Known about the structure:
This protein has 14 helices and 16 strands. The protein has helices at 9-18, 45-59, 79-92, 104-117, 147-160, 174-189, 208-216, 228-241, 257-263, 265-268, 283-296, 302-321, 326-335, 384-387; strands spanning 2-3, 29-34, 62-63, 66-67, 69-74, 97-100, 120-123, 140-142, 165-171, 193-200, 221-225, 272-275, 347-348, 354-355, 358-363, 376-382. Strands 1-5-2-6-7-8 form a 6-stranded mixed β-sheet, with helices on both faces. Strands 10-9-11 form a 3-stranded parallel β-sheet, with helices on both faces. Residues 1-24 have low confidence and may be disordered.
Amino acid sequence: MYRITRAAFAAGLAAFAISPSLAQQTSLKIGVLSDFSSVYSDIGGMGNVEATKIAIEDFGGQMFGKPIDMVSADVLNKPDVAASIARKWWETEGVDMIIDLPTSATALAVMELSKQYEKVMIVTDAASSDITGKSCSPYTAHWTYDTYSNAHTVGSAIVKNGGDTWFFLTADYVFGHSIERDTGDVVKAAGGKVLGSVKHPLNTADFSSFLLQAQASKAKIIGLANGGGDTINAIKQAGEFGIVAGGQNLPAIVMFISDVHSLGLKLAQGLIITEAYYWDLNDKTRAFGKRFMERVKRMPTMNQAATYSATLHYLKAVQAAGTKDTKTVMAKMRELPVRDAFTDNGSLRDDGRMVHSMYLFQVKKPEESKGPWDYYKLLAEVPADQAFRPLKDGGCPLVK
Length: 400
């Protein structure tokens, strides 16, 4: 357990002034459910734990005069493990809010429990657009990005530049299926064609047979509908097969700065990707990136910056509401704007989607980089209303 003991006297007094009943409140506890040991550990993992700690510290370390606690656990990317931990935390350990969730399958499993226990849950890693679509919940916020936003930002740009035939290399679970579906819709709407797809298991070491099928399709674009270590392995092995040299391109529809760092600029150069955050965008992003780097020894991914943002926003909402009551806090989270190191134009919608600008980047050539982690050239800022699915189109039952 992580407990911040540094007093925040002024914040405590302000909180107590809201309501005389606050003295009866129990300590606020946040649970981080993450991947600490597998394919998504670099994009979230211990970096998300550290981002949560920084947010708690920035808030002042206390809520209603009592220390804010934090617990964390590895879900092993298994929905049943995630659900078991969440149930224990909510039933017996007094956790008020769970954040992170590394895969869409784990997120959807814990969302069902969130409804049962009426507890706040914030998804900062998982990406399926179903989280705020047909599976939406009044108690869940989806913070960083989703398969719709990435498909529309990257997919649209590639089709416009002539990449009009696609074949997908797809992780065989909800996340990968959602990327393939959402990007395929973009391609077809723009007049392109989807020639096929092949599914691979999560955490695949050998992509040979899958890449051969993609290569044989003759599609101009081999869309990587996967993430983390799977994306890295696929790109490395595609290089060995000479796929790009043979005229096909591999856009990473969901890719992170940690992936580029692992690949190196020689392999990653020229990739068109979309992110919600980049450490070198502006003074706020650079300041947070520097603090994170000092503690973790690497720059934050967009998921890690979003975990900081979501934690801080949740704490502000609890304080403003004067209670930990879930429905009251969720209403306050929707009311308050999101303004921090992650975004300066965010807002939480009724379907649980936190909308904000997304950014289209191209990975620099080695000779263009000025130093470690200087990896991206900004191509475009995509406003929230263009990046994210319109509220009316998601099929969320909460939307009237």
